[in-house]
Amino acid sequence: MLSQKFLKIWFAGELDEKAVEHLKRKLGEALARRERRILLRFYLEEGSHESYYDALRNILLSNVSLSVVVEERPASELERDLEKASGEEFLLVLGRGASKPSRSAGLIVEEVGGDARE
Amino acid sequence: MPENKLDIILTTDRSMMTTHHGKEFLGFMATGPAVGMPERLWMWIACPKMRTDSAGRPWQAPYALRKLEALLQDRGYNAAVIDPDHVNKYLADAKILMLSHHDYFALCPPSSEWWVVTKKEPVNSKSFRSFMDGLNLAEAKRRGLKIIVGGPAAWQWLYKPDLIERWGIDTIVDGEGERVVTGLVERVYAGEPLPRYVFVGPSDVPSIEEIPLIKRPSINGLIEIMRGCPRGCKFCSVTLRPLRHIPLDRIEKEMLVNVEGGVESGILHSEDILLYGAMGLKLNPDALIKLHQLARRHWKSIAWSHASLAAVKNAEEEYHLISKIMEIVKSGGQDYLGVEVGIETGSVRLARKIMPAKSAPYPPEMWPEIVEDAFAIMHENNIVPAATLILGLPEETPDDVMKTAELIDRLRPYRSLIVPMFFVPMGILKNKDWFTDVKVTDEHIEVMRRCLWHSIYWAEKILSEFYLRNPKYFPLRWMLQLFLKYATYKGRLIERKLGLTPLGRREKYGEEVLAAAQ
After folding, report:
1. According to a count of CB atoms within 10 Å of the terminal CB, is the N or C end of chain A lower?
2. What integer is the mean pLDDT of A74-102?
3. Same domain, B255 and B165
């Protein structure tokens, strides 16, 4: 299953209520488009553990139909991963407090709350 | 397997790695805390230690672990199921520790209910925690051990981030693992990072051919005959997966693995045994007869894991199938058959809302009648059901709960155990509010005490006339009878404390209802 095609969403920033709702909506849209699998990659700041799981649970438990893979990466790796991922298709969702990536050409970026830092 | 070296250890704690003395139903005791006796004695009754070989491989192991073991061995990995008492000696060399459980943290029913009622942590959760804390994980993790957890209770880890951190859990796999696990193992071998969580959706469940055959015995000879369920009840996760009927030749091969491994009785496992071979919800008598003839040929005694009450009624009324199956069962000298059934609710309104197809081929409006008719059919045919019902379903009203209480009263004449369970969000209701003790109402208490007295009344008869009749079980029977006396005493005490009119004069209550029914 892991080698199959996944719809990819990367998320950076604060996983607050708005972000959770946004990602849940993304799952719903994916399902409506008859996607079967979705990969959610979270870029996490140090120490965001407990609230992250509360939010994650909220997102994951709203789904029963899609296969979901959740990956976690340190927030500091985002820029490097974006460099490496050039040519890959994915959606980057920026939550509150996330810095806008220096490379944005060819990227589909959505902002939640609209206060991502330049 | 090279002596004391394994790349992949598959295991679980003692509450799962046990034969329950060959009496699967005693496993229910592992979902509660020790009541009225020391915990060690409770554990001995519910979860005695498993016999192992010198390498620590258990004689019998949970079916899901056996499936994974077969899958990994078929792909050439040095993997084996290991008894929890022997895991430490393999940790120094292992690359992966794989865990499975029905209820890691006692959050599933009925564990969660016993916890709420007794205010004491059930032994399954305590046993798992003490197992994990007893492993030399720190050193193994430093060396690079990866821990992958799965099984039907995998979702519970999402509520335990502190324990994910403490034990260094790498990946949670929620759902049927056949198409995922080898991919994860390959990543570990390649030194690639693992995902934190994998949910296997309906389109990624394995086909029948992808489901491996077990290579060593499963606990109490349990064999899966179907996966998935077509009834679509909203509180159930199994129903979200496609329905697959395992062909008889594959079932027979697994039966033989068990029999050759010394496990001579078995449990047919499905969410609804009577739907084996069915076209949708239309029963297939021929497939069921062949299945039971096969089981009769190979097993000393046969049990069912689950059956639906609508199918019991339909099978008997339309095809006399329950009588026919019991003729086959009894032809081997066995005089009863145990099964778990779901009443869920006595309310037609709720039945219509949350489980409209559970009553099929009958309409949901008939649900209470279906339950009573099915209980009567089972009683007449010596099928002993352990029934469950759900309290605290979303949108439940006090009237719904009283309808359930009334139904339990009507079931009094029928030999059975009835266990109330608190709603736990699974299936498509899994994002609903959790039912907690603060929401326990007077009506819930009415249902709970009716279940208690019903089950105490019948448990003594079931123990002495059916379940533990064999003299080798006398010590166990004696201890359980003592426990029943204690439960009676406690039940009466609680009723008095709550100022409730006692239902608890169990002989009197039982006889009165029986007389009324006759």
Report:
1. C
2. 87
3. no
Which of B204, B235, B258 is at the close of a domain? Answer: B204
* Shared-domain flag, residues B377 and B504: yes
Tell me what ipTM this predicted complex has. 0.94
Q: Does B200 touch chain A (CB under 8 A)?
A: yes
Secondary structure element (H or E) that encloses residue B309, with its range: helix B309-319
Whether cis (ω within 30° of 0) applies to the bond prior to B247 is no
- Specify whether the backbone of B338 is left (phi greater than 0), alpha (psi in -120 to 50) or beta: beta
CB-based contact B124:B31 (threshold 8 Å): yes
Question: Which residue type is seen at B134?
Answer: G
Alpha-carbon Rg for chain A, nearest whole angstrom, is 14
Using one digit for the tens of pLDDT, what is the confidence trace for B380-413? Answer: 999 999 999 999 888 899 999 999 999 999 999 9
Whether chain A has a CB inside 8 Å of the CB on B198: the answer is yes
pLDDT of residue B518: 47
**C-alpha distance from A93 to closest chain B C-alpha (Å):** 19
Do residues B224 and B191 share a domain? Answer: no
Is B176 a member of any domain?
A: yes
pLDDT band for A114, please (50, 70, 90 cuts): low
Closest by Cβ to B430, choosing from A56, A61, A71: A61
Which structural domain range is residue B412 located in? 217-517
B367 shares a domain with B504: yes
Average pLDDT over residues A24-39: 93
At B110 the pLDDT is 85
* Antiparallel, parallel or unpaired: β B302-304 and B306-307: unpaired
CATH number of residue B323's parent domain: 3.80.30.20
Size of interface A-B (CB pairs under 8 A): 79
Answer whether B32's CB lies under 8 Å from B118's CB: yes
- What's the number of domains chain B is made of? 2
For B198, which residue in chain A has the nearest alpha carbon?
Answer: A69
Closest CA–CA distance from residue B182 to any residue of chain A (Å) = 9
Q: Which residue of B has its CA nearest to A37?
A: B201
Residues B200 and B222 in one domain: no
**Which among B158, B164, B196 has CB closest to A71?**
B196
